[in-house]
Design brief:
Elements (H helix, E strand, L loop, with lengths): L3 E5 L16 E5 H9 L9 E4 L7 H4 L5 E3 L7 H11 L4 E5 L6 H14 L4 E5 L3 E6 L2 E4 L5 E17 L8 E4 L5 E5 L5 E4 L2 E12 L7
Parallel strand pairs: 1-2, 1-5, 2-3, 3-4, 5-6
Antiparallel strand pairs: 6-7, 7-13, 8-12, 9-10, 9-11, 9-12, 9-13
EC number: 2.7.6.2
Protein name: Thiamine diphosphokinase
Keywords: ATP-binding, Kinase, Nucleotide-binding, Transferase
């Protein structure tokens, strides 16, 4: 039984599509349906298409109308409502594509939704630059050497210690209003991160880097 779900949402379309065979459930929001169609994703593999269908264009979607789940609650985003459906279907690990790019308020909203669900689901975003997700208080990352590592406090994190990074942290505090930990990079294959309280959004670069900078 494949216990991970795949969800496409309406940000920038991925440059390449993941292997759909790795997932037990595949879904998209109504806006993402259009780029999946353009990319010739096998739409029959979608388990559901959710949203308010304000971007519905007619005949193409009508072919898959039996997969529609209408979600009209305007107090929640389409991403939020899709996660609720996936959780109800018994999946707690989700890979998300299309979470970044496009209008930046959508991107920030997607991060806030992921924060809301972080204790219920393991949500991992992917884009052309990195994968990013919230991490627990004790975390290890394998295969990290020469990859960009950014630690983003959400909104703050206390007593954070890292090992395996070029610029390590030792019992330090980060906050979006003072100091953040972006644009670091791994010098070891294993990176460990521990912190006492708060929340950390971890960004891991997809490609190896040669001349890193830190801000």
């Amino acid at each position: 039984m494949k216990d991970k779900a795949l969800l496409f949402i309406n940000g920038d379309a991925p440059k390449s599509l993941p292997n759909s065979e790795n997932y037990g459930l595949i879904a998209c929001t109504d806006g993402a349906f259009h780029y999946l169609k353009r990319m010739e994703f096998p739409l029959d593999k979608l388990d559901f298409i959710s949203g308010d269908f304000d971007s519905h264009s007619g005949s193409d979607e009508d072919m898959y109308q039996e997969k529609f789940i209408l979600t009209l609650d305007q107090d929640k985003t389409d991403f939020h409502k899709a996660l609720e459906i996936i959780l109800e279907k018994g999946f707690s690990e989700i890979d998300v594509f299309g979470g970044s790019g496009g209008e930046q308020d959508h991107f920030l909203g997607n991060l806030t939704v992921a924060y809301t669900f972080k204790d219920l689901m393991g949500i991992k975003f992917y884009d052309e630059f990195s994968e990013y997700y919230f991490i627990p208080n004790h975390f290890k990352l394998e295969g990290a050497k020469n990859r960009m590592i950014s630690l983003y406090p959400f909104p703050s994190v206390n007593n954070i210690t890292t090992k395996g990074l070029n610029w390590p942290l030792t019992n330090e505090n980060l906050s979006i209003t003072s100091r953040i930990g972006t644009r670091n990079f791994a010098v070891e294959d294993e990176v460990s991160i521990e912190y006492e309280s708060g929340d950390v959004l971890l960004f891991v670069g997809i490609s190896e880097i040669e001349y890193p900078t830190i801000y």
